[in-house]
Amino acid sequence: MSKNREKDDVSGVETTGHEWDGIRELDNPLPRWWLYIFYATVVWSIGYWVVMPAWPLVNDYTRGVLGHSQRLDVDAAIASLKEGRSALGEKLAKATPQEIEADPELQQAALAWGRSAFGDNCATCHGGGGGGNVGYPNLNDDIWLWGGTLDDIRHTLKVGIRSTHPETRLSAMPAYGRDELLEPGQIRDLAEYVLNLSGKSTDAEAVARAAPLFVDNCAACHGEDGKGLREFGSPNLTDADWLYGGDKDTIIETITNARNGVMPTWEGRLDAPTINALAVYVHSLGGGE
User: What is the tally of structural domains in the chain?
Assistant: First the structure.
């Protein structure tokens, strides 16, 4: 066969017959060092199959001579972590958030613990830094529907908002359009009235028409001045902070279909020291009262 194969004119090495764009492949042997490494990896793999878990079976897997298990390693690491944190967890569970903030060492530990718990459980909705998103409150400002004290924050964490907890924070805005409580024209006028509360309306006649509608349908929760009532978790309509958006179309959508977001209850899902640490961490973001 080799008599029929071409030789490279420059190197004198036979070619494989492969050619691409005028470049011919030389039939050089693999470097010995590469072959030795390859043989070593084959020997290593056979040894690994013998001593370590390697091959899946129908209902199990080969355990290997050493019987090593990464799952057991993880379980041991978690147990060690829990043991190391048990003393701190006991302190955090027994202390009030106020006592935690008053103790610099305990506060530092709570902030680290709370930051980790926030990233695992809260950041998906509120953002990594607590800056919020459309429909999810910004925890860095001083706008709190249900209160921003340490106790308020801890209570909200425990019971949630419109959650399954029997003591959940609960308020319900009617869907004035979907449930045909108001006519579309009335809803548009109400949107102008809400815009007027924050100084953005340009339709004085619509505002005048909507004034009695606001008193009859909205003032009980938002207050006659539109500044909201914390006992109902109703937002202040006179400022520039909007959870879902403050343009007219968004306000019309809100009035038409209502906004009743849900925050889960963390009681039972997180232990007492974690909830206390989270309350301290959220309070430290800059918006706590």
Answer: 3
